User: Which sequence fits this backbone?
């Protein structure tokens, strides 16, 4: 700014940067009225408005070393104001336009004096000579200065006193806004100051580019997202150009005002942050050292931050995590800086600005990894954007089989709850689950097919019957500590042959084969909480790719879908025959349409070993026959007080069947949610 106001503000900023108390006071005097009006525009008034004003200027003092130039100071203040509100759990409306009216209330001076004195005392800026009662000479002088600030709201007082409220362009813009009342019915208006035409949208002048909204307001002191381009306007209402230092980042704007690059320093965060506390709660305190200092932005449901775990990494990755929960996503790697705006996150990568829609889905991170689709194949990348070089990579209970980082297969690792591991005695053939010591932990149905663990629970799929053309199965979970077991699906035809845990999103995904024991055709199912669902894959499973011998293999969990391979296979023959994959395609199966897995009927409960020892051994002759029909099964287990109707003989060496086996599911009229 070329006005006297701009010179005064620039001088105050310079002195405040140097830590001068007087410079901070001048900064407050020159800007508090506009800031107070911005707070009122948010619907905050009374004492709450003054408390927010004091908190805002306390932040200004804390960030004094990074104060921006006078031309963008108010824009910077407004960004800081948004951050202060977010820290208090409030959000600024996305469509809010701050007022252009510069009138102020006459009764503000005394209150503003009290606020400044209290603020300086809180910040330790008041010397003993200033610490006097409210009626002291210091306060009287301060009130006089603040009164001058109020008087300075008129153009005449500006020329005599500070001149800090009158701006050359501000007067022009207000004049334009006055005569643009017909803007809703006309695409152009005439500037009262110059007679030049002012158009709705972008306008060009010798001073730079400006933007007139459809409501007749000139954009001032704000960011503006125009399609795939981001702009920032100064207090005069013109786009910024060149390099601008704001907060801890340097923004580079092109000649037309478009943001072209963001750079910053990458020192490690030393203090406690909301992210470091989350990491500590998750038992990953050592990972907190990778957080980049002053890179955290809290926005709505998400917290954004830069993370660089390895000291030798060139640039950090941009991540976000839900404020409530552990859902962590990677937005991009090799990011030199970023800013979160109303609709999108704008970040710099390889000296270019890229845009990420906030409602979009970033790649979910699993223990510091993510996947990219490369030529219809999923490639496993680490958080630094490097291809994983190992042939196998373990991630949160899943093992990825790789070839030049391309994912070939995903198999479950041994089910583990704490230090205890569990194994199926013979998948698809034996009803027993064994522990590390080789002892039988539980026995259920005709055979245990697949198993995994999530948190403190062991999940498994049991074939209740192998009889007939198609077996019948059910999903169960058991709390290893309490031994409480419950069904988490209804009884369904076919079998589950693979269960993959995704603690990143709190879901277990399963390869489900609805056909006979030797069938290869497979769909995707999932367990979330105490419910199991079959996913609707009709939108991606089109054409003649599989011809009946195709299956879906879950690969990577996203927020709203599961990335999978659609595999065309050779026909199967026996129950555990190795499946040969002929070809595969990378697909994303949406989670929006699904139905509960299984039908309503009673089912048998597992036999669970006591605290010490295991279940007694049985022979085929001693074991009761497997129930052949679900109808007979429902009659047989309608009321079972003890274990005589289950595989295994009655004995006091093992606990009685758990109560609480529940009726599950309905799929007479499948419900989609």
Assistant:
């Amino acid at each position: 700014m070329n006005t006297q106001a701009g010179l005064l503000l620039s001088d105050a900023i310079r002195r405040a940067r140097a830590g001068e108390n007087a410079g901070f006071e001048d900064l407050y005097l020159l800007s508090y009225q506009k800031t107070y009006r911005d707070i009122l525009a948010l619907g905050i008034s009374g004492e709450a408005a003054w408390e927010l004003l004091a908190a805002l200027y306390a932040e200004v003092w804390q960030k004094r070393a990074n104060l921006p130039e006078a031309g963008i100071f108010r824009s910077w203040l407004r960004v800081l104001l948004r951050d202060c509100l977010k820290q208090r759990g409030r959000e600024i409306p996305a469509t809010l336009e701050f007022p252009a009216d510069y009138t102020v209330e006459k009764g503000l001076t005394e209150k503003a004096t009290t606020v400044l004195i209290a603020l300086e005392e809180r910040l330790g800026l008041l010397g003993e000579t200033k610490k006097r009662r409210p009626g002291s000479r210091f306060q009287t002088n301060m009130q006089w200065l603040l009164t001058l600030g109020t008087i300075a709201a008129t153009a005449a007082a500006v020329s005599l006193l500070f001149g800090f409220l009158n701006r050359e362009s501000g007067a022009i813009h207000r004049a334009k806004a006055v005569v643009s009342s017909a803007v809703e019915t006309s695409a152009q208006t005439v500037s009262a100051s110059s007679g030049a035409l002012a158009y709705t949208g972008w306008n060009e002048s010798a001073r730079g580019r400006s933007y007139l909204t459809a409501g007749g307001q000139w954009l001032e002191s704000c960011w503006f997202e125009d399609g795939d381009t981001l702009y920032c306007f100064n207090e005069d209402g013109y786009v910024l150009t060149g390099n601008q230092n704001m907060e801890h980042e340097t923004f580079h704007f092109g000649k037309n005002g478009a943001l072209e690059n963001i750079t910053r320093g990458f020192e490690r965060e030393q203090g406690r942050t909301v992210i470091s506390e989350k990491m500590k709660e998750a038992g990953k305190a050592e990972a907190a050292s990778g957080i980049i200092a002053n890179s955290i932005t809290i926005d709505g449901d998400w917290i954004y931050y830069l993370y660089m775990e390895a000291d030798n990494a060139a640039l950090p990755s941009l991540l976000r995590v839900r404020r409530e929960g552990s859902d962590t996503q990677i937005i991009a790697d090799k990011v030199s800086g970023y800013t979160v705006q109303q609709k999108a996150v704008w970040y710099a990568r390889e000296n270019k600005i890229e845009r990420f829609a906030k409602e979009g889905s970033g790649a979910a991170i699993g223990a510091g990894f993510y996947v990219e689709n490369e030529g219809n194949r999923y490639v496993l990348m680490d958080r630094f954007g490097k291809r994983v070089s190992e042939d196998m990579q373990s991630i949160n209970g899943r093992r990825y089989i790789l070839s030049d980082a391309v994912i070939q297969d995903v198999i479950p690792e041994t089910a583990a709850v704490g230090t205890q591991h569990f194994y199926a005695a013979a998948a698809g053939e034996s009803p027993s689950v064994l522990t590390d010591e080789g002892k039988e932990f539980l026995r259920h149905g005709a055979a245990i097919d697949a198993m995994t663990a999530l948190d403190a629970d062991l999940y498994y799929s049991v074939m209740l019957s192998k009889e007939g053309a198609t077996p019948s199965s059910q999903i169960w979970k058991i709390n290893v500590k309490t031994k409480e077991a419950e069904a988490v699906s209804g009884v369904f035809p076919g079998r589950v042959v693979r269960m993959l845990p995704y603690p990143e999103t709190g879901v277990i995904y399963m390869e489900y084969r609805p056909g006979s024991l030797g069938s290869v055709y497979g769909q995707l199912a999932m367990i979330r909480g105490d419910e199991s669902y079959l996913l609707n894959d009709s939108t991606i499973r089109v054409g003649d790719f599989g011809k009946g011998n195709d299956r879906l293999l879950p690969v990577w969990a996203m927020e709203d879908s599961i990335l999978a391979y659609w595999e065309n296979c050779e026909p199967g023959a026996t129950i555990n025959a190795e499946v040969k994959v002929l070809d595969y395609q990378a697909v994303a199966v949406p989670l929006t349409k699904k139905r509960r897995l299984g039908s309503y009927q009673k089912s048998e409960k597992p036999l669970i070993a006591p605290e010490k020892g295991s279940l007694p051994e049985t022979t085929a002759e001693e074991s009761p026959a497997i129930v052949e029909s679900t109808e007979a099964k429902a009659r047989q287990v309608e009321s079972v007080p003890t274990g005589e109707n289950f595989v295994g003989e009655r004995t006091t060496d093992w606990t009685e069947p758990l109560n609480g086996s529940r009726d599950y599911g309905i799929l007479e009229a499948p419900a989609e949610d």
Observations:
- The CA atoms of residues 100 and 174 lie 7 Å apart.
- The mean pLDDT is 76.
